[in-house]
Amino acid sequence: MPELPEVEVTRLSFARRILGGRVTAVRLGKPLRWPMGCAGESLLGQTVGAVIRRGKYLWLPLEGGGLLMHLGMSGSLRFADHVAPPGAHDHFDLVTTRGTLRLTDPRRFGAVVWSPAIDAGTAARLLSGLGLEPFDPAFSGASLHAGLRRRRGAVKLALLAGDIVVGAGNIYASEALFAAGIDPRARSNTLSRPRCERLAIAVRDTLARALELGGSTLRDFRDAHGVAGDFQNEARVYGREGEPCRVCGARVRRIVQAQRASYFCPRCQRR
DNA sequence: AAGTGGACCTGCTAGC
DNA sequence: TGCTAGCAGGTCCACT
Q: What per-residue confidence (pLDDT) applies to A213?
């Protein structure tokens, strides 16, 4: 489900309210992608110091370390003063004096992992390979060009890999490539510097626009207060196979790359 | 060392 | 109506 905009919208929707909350209970449901790495009781009495995002991960620093959270494909977080009794897909509750943070994740590809610091333990291992943040000034046509030059595979897959730039998943990678006029099958190392400039801008602008609109709600995304996003109504190609391109009218195509759908306009986007 | 295919898990929908 | 196959917003890992 969640790409960078959805994770950031989620973060913004509860970060202030949970700040300073002291943990009074932890409830674990079914196992997630990885074991949490500590007993729930060891978190009791600790205070939430911040909610930080890195790529599609959230990091909640506590006093003796922190929790690294990922929403996987189907995860979402809610934050409320009081939560209903846990349902079948509610696999983690962090009950604090400011409210309860609940992770709901039917497919359980998400994770909540304890680490002694953001740059230590499991958190360090998971975060170490991540590329630049798209809104970091260091992310530019030049850095994108440098990253893509080392690869021969399709540019869409290079964006998804997240080791050059983080945040664009399957929806926004397709949308950014449309905005930049680049065919998702184009070989990474064949893209000129000017095209990389356009792509870097497209990635940033696409994610920024999605953020403004509260993310994309294709099936079930909601922020921590249950509010849906609107970006899906602005998608130019994602999920629009066979429909006319909003720019030129050609039929949007769907292909499969690395077992994932890619959508593009065969006329507006070139290799 | 980059590229690939499979794995994890559940729910929903289209089609027969 | 009911079953089945296929698909879904992520990413790690083993293998070539």
A: 94
